[in-house]
Amino acid sequence: MLRRLLLQSSFLTLAGCSILPERPPLKLYSISLGAPTYRNIISKRRLSSVRVNPPMVAEPYDSSKIYVLGKDNRMFNTEISQLVSTPSQIIAAAIREKLSAGGPWRIVLLPNSIAQFDYQLTIFISEFYISAVSKPYQAKVALQASVTTTAFDKLVYQRQFSAASDIEKAEIPLAVKGLENALNTVLNELTVSLNESL
After folding, report:
1. How far apart are CA 49 and CA 163, in angstroms?
2. Which residues contact 57 (CB under 8 A, 6 or more apart)?
3. Mean pLDDT lowest for which of 10-24, 96-110, 118-132?
4. pLDDT tens-digit profile of 106-123?
5. Residues 172, 66: contact at Cβ < 8 Å?
6. pTM for the full model?
7. Residues paired with residue 76 on neighbouring β-strands, in sequence order
8. Torsion angle in degrees (nearest 10) through CA of 162, 102, 155, 142
9. 142, 104, 143: which is closest to 123 by C-alpha?
10. Is the dihedral of CA 90, 103, 123, 140 positive or negative?
11. Inter-helix orientation angle 87-102/172-197, to 10°
């Protein structure tokens, strides 16, 4: 009797699962920033070393989900279409690459490096989303960068950067390309600014 009841309940469970709608497959997109556009010759670099701290990202943007600001000024995310990495991972890798190629420092260290460093760069990302409030839709990226000395923890540089890139159509691949363009603009401006200011 108990066996029969268990068998019937397992068939009901299987039947119930087959009537549920299937979830569409997850679509993953990557942001590739390409080669750094600004080059600073090693012999012209004045400062010795910098440690790039892991970027901090405002909520809710530190997620692989793509966030969209709708016409009603409410934020929503795309469940099916996502980025391969979080914005903090994307920006951490890109900023180290750009500073290694064109920054004012001879050596750019990872956050977990045990080597001595003279400066530390901290980045806070305050915006990383698609604005669909009005046409043309825009990809928006904003960040704040600060540099402190290791010796006295003295703030020697602080600046905010923002960029918006127009999106031709309301399609996720074009939105991701817009985020890529806006992020590239912001990071290139940061690299040039660091070279001019430090």
Report:
1. 28
2. 86, 87, 88, 124, 125, 128
3. 10-24
4. 899 988 888 999 999 999
5. yes
6. 0.82
7. 68
8. 10
9. 143
10. negative
11. 40
